Amino acid sequence: MLMRMLRDIARIGFLLITLLVVAMPSNLAHASPGCSPSQSSSWQICGPIQAITGVNEQSTVIQASDGTLDLAWTHIGRNLFPSLVQAVNGTVFLFWSYKATTAKNYQLYYRTLRGSVWSAYTKVPLQSATMLNDTQPSTALAKDGTFWLAWTRDDSTPTGSTVHRWLMYETLNSAGQLKTGEQTITSSTDTNWNFQPSLLVPKDGVPRIVFSKGQSSLANFQINYVSWTGSTWSPAAAIVTSNSTANDENPSLTQDRNGTLWVFWSRNMNTNYAIRSEYSWDGGTTWRGETLLTAACSTCADSLYPAAVQSSSDKNLWVFYSTKRDERFRNLCRRFSQSLRGDQSKCCRIDLRDGSELGRLC
């Protein structure tokens, strides 16, 4: 199955990626990026899978019902922080933050993909209009078909006041219509920044969010965690405790088929940003196994914006992220080198047409 790049999403790239090995069309040039060891023996680095000239970052990925991995990311422009989710009926929703040329603030939008047709830009419905910035959306599907949407709101618009960043959420139905109005998760007056949410509704049906929290003046951010109690969100708790003065950002939360929760994030190592991970066997009560996945050194490239998912085809965990090489950010993939079935993994391989934005990942 071909991976398609849809270029009509106003500078947000979108890939459909299949993990099944199928025969290559004769008109595709073969160009395997290869795989190499990582900082952990359980992981390997494969890529780059995309190197469009310019900045390619803020990736998001889902396991689609047709067996493909759907990947979207930001490529320059006013369209930022994409988040993908698929409805029960198979419709793919792309949420993101967009600042129109006539707007004074960033607002949340979505488009839907049905077959090969994208809908028009649609503003995410809010109960109360705002002139504040709404960015960094994260979306997940509940068992009843409800979309849970979390995002960052800040008061940098209008200017002139201290910038606060806090988390908001609301729920939508499968048509993108409002079910419950927007509400705060963290306080809008908290002196800490609470931002960059990653929302997951795992097998037990309880929505969970990991996010970055801390003092912006100190560049000291910690990965925190909240879960839905049925009527409110639990108190925020730091789940990464290895370094209380670290700058930990851009978390991504996923669950494997055994029920284990995984969180991936980027840390400022004082030399560069590197990807790290932890997991929880008990539904988020305790977190363990912190692991460095990408290199940390004064000459090492930054590794940022991890986006994690488990493939239904090969059962491996995949983590897509951006890294800077030759003054360009590229999306790379990282795969767990031993699948949860006990099989050995296979390197990802991508073929791209010269000059176009089409290809296939096998």
Question: What would you note in describing this structure?
Answer:
With 362 residues, the chain is mostly beta strands. It has a single domain (3-361), classed as Neuraminidase (6 Propeller). It has strands at residues 3-4, 12-18, 35-37, 43-50, 56-63, 68-75, 79-86, 92-98, 107-114, 117-118, 122-123, 133-141, 147-154, 165-172, 178-184, 193-200, 208-215, 220-227, 237-238, 248-255, 261-268, 273-280, 288-292, 303-310, 317-325, 328-336, 350-352, 358-361. A 5-stranded antiparallel β-sheet has the order 3-4-26-25-24, with no helix packed on it. It is globular and about 45 Å long. It starts with a strand and ends with a strand. Residues 1-11, 13-32 and 335-362 have low confidence and may be disordered.
Blueprint of the fold:
Elements: E1 3-4, E2 12-18, E3 35-37, E4 43-50, E5 56-63, E6 68-75, E7 79-86, E8 92-98, E9 107-114, E10 117-118, E11 122-123, E12 133-141, E13 147-154, E14 165-172, E15 178-184, E16 193-200, E17 208-215, E18 220-227, E19 237-238, E20 248-255, E21 261-268, E22 273-280, E23 288-292, E24 303-310, E25 317-325, E26 328-336, E27 350-352, E28 358-361
